[in-house]
Amino acid sequence: MTTGDAPQGRDDGTSGGSGGRPGPPPDDARPATLRDVATLAGVSVPTASKALNGRPDVRESTRRRVEDAAARLDFTPNTLAQGLSARRSGTVGLLTSDLDGRFSIPVLMGAEDAFGFERTAVLLCDARGDAIREQHHLRALLARRVDGLIVVGERPDVRASLGRVPVPVVYAYAPSDDPADCSLVSDHEGAGRLAVEHLLATGRRCVGHISGDPGYGATRDRAEGARAALASAGLELAGGRPLLGAWSEEWGRGATRSLLRAEPGLDAVFAGSDQVARGVLDALREEGRRVPDDVAVVGVDNWEAVATGARPALSTVDLDLQHLGRVAAQRLQAAMGGSPSRGVERLPGRLVVRASSAPRG
Amino acid sequence: MTTGDAPQGRDDGTSGGSGGRPGPPPDDARPATLRDVATLAGVSVPTASKALNGRPDVRESTRRRVEDAAARLDFTPNTLAQGLSARRSGTVGLLTSDLDGRFSIPVLMGAEDAFGFERTAVLLCDARGDAIREQHHLRALLARRVDGLIVVGERPDVRASLGRVPVPVVYAYAPSDDPADCSLVSDHEGAGRLAVEHLLATGRRCVGHISGDPGYGATRDRAEGARAALASAGLELAGGRPLLGAWSEEWGRGATRSLLRAEPGLDAVFAGSDQVARGVLDALREEGRRVPDDVAVVGVDNWEAVATGARPALSTVDLDLQHLGRVAAQRLQAAMGGSPSRGVERLPGRLVVRASSAPRG
DNA sequence: TTGTACGCGTTATCAA
DNA sequence: TTGATAACGCGTACAA
């Protein structure tokens, strides 16, 4: 209702027969087409098209008439029809495996806003981690003639390539097993290094590592990063090796207690996730250690609710998955434009310092 | 030009000039069209169409030939073209306001799987809570000729209606302010009743309510449900009134301590969210109360990571937002089919009992 | 049973 | 500068 009377009255008067009174405007009217605009402006359809698309070979006065008519009819070009002749849908598919997971969402958000929605819309499908369903969705997306595809894995480990697909594909979060594909992942090893270097910088010397499921590649990578950072300072992990278990608070608590028994002088813990870190913090408090005065703690994920609700607030490595999603979208656009990338690209996280790793003092 | 030489080179041999050797198949070939299929099968395009669409008026042997040809060419009908003539895109828009929020995701998942993806795909857009951007996205969705629209609000409060839109709209999670629209929301009052009735059933008599932001309608509704349930049993809220503050653990801890001072006999707390409930649990433990032996606790949300990580595991009301999303999709499909609903429909949650509210014993 | 003709809404080409 | 014509890929009415 902004401008006034725009929409329906395309046919002023002509509609005659059906309704009778001019009262309730026939809003069942279908959206205005270019032909409606052309007719109203008194030009041919192609001319109307050129005028609205800002092509130079059209008289100014004509263009004005057409634009006017378009505005009056609230004309919006039918994207499907445009796509049909242009042979592109202006659409990309987002094939995810775990919408419920916390990880695919930021990636998805980043991707979604990297494409200006005007030009490229996002078709969402969640395969629920089922390969069959994924194939199903893939076919459906191709039937819709998506111009490209982003595949978001459910966990940060290598996954099966989609294989030959007639449109460009970018893998995000979980890399493809085919090195010819383009994949974007977080630098987990770098995350481990980042965390431990920070702990060392605050003067810690006895640094343990408690992390989650040893089956995850990210678990191993983060541990390796931690080990390397310590090695550069001539140190080793407290306890001699990382304590790997599950991505849960409970594991964090239990592992912390064993580690304290083995290394009473412990003055820092790098936890493999914020959830694990929560467990670490709780166990430390209950064992009478003060954080950060006695022991500093750093997690991974920067899961807001968890990190800021912790006591004290948790320092953590933010993997910046939203940025990862944005970059994925950029790579995909480049590929759609004819400049594909290939191989695995690792994106760095960034440290978010809160109270749990403040320097002693 | 009608039948003779289809597009280019997909047909064996003729491509000649460019490549040279017949080695690598020209996979840059555009997807097969119905015309390609018809040509290969030696029939006309409409016949091929009928054959593939299972229409009866086609000889069996012909149908076989066509299906065969389609399979050989890996033919997939172009949904855009189908939609163009059918005047429907087979697409619905999902207009959300806070992808990062935990609440819109389940709704979105439910909606996504209620539409069989084959027939209806979901176009995702996140307005980031910005009304301008929402208008933008709305226009873009309409340009893509979505057949319907689901609007997922960012918090469980009344939001502005989109107003007149040429396709059916369903509001989920946050209801529209226009009673003529169709809205689906959680029954927050019912959730409060559910929680308190459960606490009473386990023998509790001194029940407090600690909840979040008093500006939320859901906060008031849950409190009212709690009050009503107590009243039915001839009781009042411990402390005389609900303690409202913020959706944080910290608030949960602080409020719990005040409540214990005011009501030393407290034997149950209904927390307005799982996060608040976590704070309640921690404070109770630190004040020396055992859960559930001394005090039982029930939350709202069934936020897995939070509820199962709690000590003890947290009983909670699951609002079943995924189901809400499914129902929203069903209502939308009905509306698209010509049978619109209107008004606000409230969907019940369900109680998930864990250790924190086990009967004393 | 099969094919011809046409429409869906838009853009590109080329002649006027 | 403008418009007739064709094409994009498919479905449907109707004639053969």
From TrEMBL, chains A, B:
Region (Disordered): 1-32
PROSITE patterns the record matches: HTH_LACI_1, HTH_LACI_2
Keywords: DNA-binding, Transcription, Transcription regulation
Transcription listed as a keyword: yes
Record's keyword annotation contains DNA-binding: yes
Domain HTH lacI-type as annotated: residue spans: 32-86
Pfam families tied to this protein: LacI, Peripla_BP_3
One MF term in the entry's GO annotations: DNA-binding transcription factor activity
Entries under InterPro entries matching the protein: HTH_LacI, LacI/GalR-like_sensor, Lambda_DNA-bd_dom_sf, Peripla_BP_I
Protein name: LacI family transcriptional regulator
